[in-house]
Every structure is written in structure tokens, then in C-alpha cells.
Amino acid sequence: TFDVGDEVELSIDNRSGLVSVRGEETRQVRVEVVARLWAESEGEADDQAELIERGIRQEGNRVTIRAPVLVRPGLLILFGRGPRIDYQVTTPRATKAHVTSRSGRVEVESLAGPLELDVRSGRAAVREIGGNAQIVSRSGGVQVESIAGSLLLDSRSGSVRVSRCGGDVTIQSRSGSLQVEDVGRKLNIEN
């Protein structure tokens, strides 16, 4: 838990696992971590846990969460059974967030914004952002609800659902279904 005040800059970079960010009426950033690790010994597991903890830092009102590289040798990686780190973050509503996820679901809700989201593989759900949102999704469905500002969304593969956006909406969708409702200003779609 970090005391940060009313406004926060949050940066998250995860390799594999869930990233959940929720804004609340608080002056703290709280990070809960669930890690599934592969280790030969208790000491090796403790070392990996320490690397995860060292990847979570605060500098003033900026909180950075960066997942370490944790490699499990052998065939387990080929079958999707490598290390996985889930981050569940609660933060003040007045948060500017940048989230990168290489593999895993991403959920972001109730932030003032702006929001930048880069999801390489996994579903993304974004709700109740008070500013602008920019979302890049390379593989996986995207659901966006209630963006007060403008939305720029680039989806390479996966279904896209967008509703209740107050500003301009620009969507590039290369593969997958597309549903858009209730746009407050201009709508530009390239499909």
C-alpha cells in the first residue's frame, strides 16, 4: 500500500496474468499480487517473490509496477504453464494510467483518465473512464463502456463492443465483429 494523495500516475507492465485496476475514493494505491511460480526449492521461490516485490515502486505520486522475467525451463512454457502474476490494484479515481499486458485479461474501471492500454494477447474490459482512452489490442476481445472523452481503439483480432462514449470515437478493426452504440460526437470506423 502506498500513500499517494488525490492524483496518481500509474504504470503497469505485466508479462502473463490478470491486470485489474479500479478507482475508488481513497488516497492510497493498494497492490495485491497472486503469483504462480515454478521453482526447484523454497529459496528459489522466495527469490522470485522478492523480484516481484522489487518491481513495485513509488516515486512521489507515481506508482510503477513492472513484472520481472521469470523463466521456467522445459516444456511447461510450451503448454502455457509458465509463471503467472496477477495484479489487482485499487487507486484514487484521479489516476492517469498506462497499462501494458503481454498475455492475460485486463480490466480497468472508474478512473478519471486519461488511459493508455496495450494488450498483446487477452481480453480487455474498460469502464467508466473520465477522460480520453487509447486502446491497442492485438489478440482478444475488447469491451468499452462509458468513456467521457474521446476513444481511439485499434483491434487487430477479436470482437469489439463500444458503448456510451462522450467524445469522438475512432476504431480500426482488422478481424472480428464490431458493435458500437451511443457515441456523443464523431464516429470513424475502419474495418
Tell me the quaternary state.
single chain
Order of helices and strands: EEEEHEEEEEEEEEEEEEE
Termini Cα gap: 43 Å
Instruction: Please outline the major beta sheet.
Output: 9 strands, mixed
Count of discrete alpha- or pi-helical segments spanning 4 or more residues = 1
Overall average pLDDT: 93
Rg (C-alpha, Å): 17 Å
Query: Which residues form runs of ≥5 with pLDDT under 50?
Result: none
Q: What is the count of β-strands?
A: 18
Question: Please, could you describe this protein's structure?
Answer:
- Helices cover 7% and strands 55% of the residues.
- It is mainly beta.
- The protein has a 9-stranded mixed β-sheet, with no helix packed on it. The protein has a 9-stranded mixed β-sheet with strand order 5-6-2-8-10-12-14-16-18.
- It is flat, with a radius of gyration of 17 Å.
Descriptors:
single chain; 191 residues; mainly beta; 9-stranded mixed sheet; 55% strand; flat
Give the structure's gist in a few sentences.
By secondary structure, the chain is mainly beta. The chain contains one helix and 18 strands. The strands form two sheets. A nine-stranded mixed sheet has the order 1-4-7-3-9-11-13-15-17, with no helix packed on it. Strands 5-6-2-8-10-12-14-16-18 form a nine-stranded mixed sheet.
Structural topology:
Layout (H helix, E strand, L loop, with lengths): L1 E2 L3 E8 L4 E6 L3 E9 L5 H13 L1 E4 L2 E5 L17 E9 L1 E8 L4 E6 L3 E5 L4 E6 L3 E5 L4 E6 L3 E5 L4 E6 L3 E5 L4 E6 L3 E4 L1
